[in-house]
Write a structure and sequence with these properties.
The protein has helices at about 5-25, 65-70, 75-80, 90-100, 110-120, 165-175, 200-205, 215-225, 250-255, 255-275, 280-295, 300-305, 320-330, 345-355, and strands at about 30-35, 50-55, 80-90, 105-110, 125-135, 135-140, 155-160, 190-195, 210-215, 225-230, 240-250, 310. It is α/β, with parallel strands linked by helices. A 7-stranded mixed sheet has the order 1-3-2-4-11-5-12, sandwiched between helices.
């Protein structure tokens, strides 16, 4: 017997509940399976898991996640355990999703990882690997801002309160002697917290004078007539600083180490391929960006954005303490105890199996 219209509506609503829960909490897009990779014959579930839920941003600074998904590498390593994905605009909302159990593993910037770890008294997450360095710029309207001194009195966008770029800009502004309330963003410079998707529109409309943002948003602003006033990499020794890490819920790491190792193996394989085939990798990242957003990046945005990135397995742990100090300077964090934030055991196991050098936790590891 066929269902009544009312019953069909009820069934549809019940079926949608898990996805609506994820979206309604501000945790990015709905969870999506990775259907790009066919399961190998006889593939088995890892740790008996039906799925592993992976979070990332639609930024080129998350190229490992973009390409690993696009090429089906995560799904291949997870076997019959489904790779599911959720997209985010910035780190604080991804940390909320991690804490709530809506995702298991995520690609994320250092500042939200630090904040999430310290606010939970070291109980919420571990950083288990690196992904990228660089790819962050201060882009301004050259008609309004001609030099770094001209930033005073202007409206500068960052992706979200407390995200990595927000902290970096507030720290830089403090070093210039500017007074800014970190919560409201008001002061000698007005900080406008703006979703990366709408920042180019705000820039075009003149409602902001510039933005401290990751790629490809920075390159989009340049394409709109903006000028790169500062590349954040120039502020760091050797131009190397962590911009994207891999984090995991501590409970998930403890209960499902084989699944975590599989994701790290896929990440390391993807990074090796990216560095060996940069042009193909750039195209693959753009293809996933198109799948996620419905629109590919034009060459005048993609090419310069990609050029400023460095893809690496190394979490560049020595720079994390510096970034934590930036958050303290910005007034967003009291001096944190980061001991135990890293657990690089599984990553180093993967790297040794690949015949590659292991990476260091700068004294901030577990144990």
């Amino acid at each position: 017997m066929s269902a009544t219209p009312a019953r069909r509506r009820t069934l549809a609503a019940l079926a949608a509940l898990p996805l609506l829960t994820l979206a309604a909490c501000g945790y990015g897009s709905q969870a999506q399976d990775d259907n790009t990779a066919e399961l190998a014959a006889g593939a088995q579930k890892i740790d008996g898991l039906d799925s592993v839920r992976i979070g990332y941003f639609g930024n080129l600074t998350h190229a490992t996640a973009l390409i690993g998904r696009q090429q089906g590498t995560f799904q291949k390593e997870l076997g019959a355990t489904k790779a599911q994905y959720a997209l985010f605009n910035a780190g604080p909302s991804e940390i909320e999703a991690l804490n709530s159990g809506s995702i298991d593993i995520g690609w994320i910037g250092p500042s939200p990882a630090i904040n999430g770890y310290t606010k939970s008294d070291g109980k919420s997450l571990r950083i288990i690997g690196g992904s990228a360095s660089g790819g962050v710029k201060l882009v301004v309207n050259p008609n309004k801002v001609r030099s770094l001194k001209d930033v005073k009195g202007k409206k500068i966008a960052t992706p979200q309160l407390g995200n990595t770029q927000d902290v970096a800009f507030l720290n830089w502004a403090a070093k210039q002697g500017y007074k800014i309330d970190p919560q409201s963003g008001k002061g000698d410079v007005t900080v406008v917290r703006s979703d990366n998707k709408v920042t180019p529109d705000a820039f075009r409309a003149g409602s902001i004078d510039g933005a401290w943002v990751p790629e490809p948003t920075a390159a989009k602003l340049v394409a709109e007539g903006g000028k790169v006033l500062l590349d954040e990499a120039t502020l760091w020794p050797g131009h190397r600083f962590v911009i994207t890490n891999i984090v995991v819920r501590q409970g998930f790491l403890k209960q499902h180490p084989k699944a975590v190792e599989a994701v790290l193996r896929a990440s390391a394989e993807t990074n090796t391929w990216i560095n060996a085939h940069p042009e193909k990798a750039k195209a693959a990242a753009n293809k996933q960006l198109q799948a996620d957003s419905g629109k590919a990046l034009p060459a005048n945005v993609l090419d310069p954005a990609w050029e400023s990135l460095r893809i690496t397995d190394d979490p560049l742990a020595a720079t994390l303490s510096t970034e934590a100090q930036h958050a303290v300077t910005a007034g967003l964090l009291t001096k944190p105890d980061l001991k135990g934030i890293y657990d690089l055991t599984l990553l180093n196991k993967v790297l040794r199996a690949k015949g590659e050098s292991t990476v260091d936790d700068a004294g901030l590891g577990v144990g």
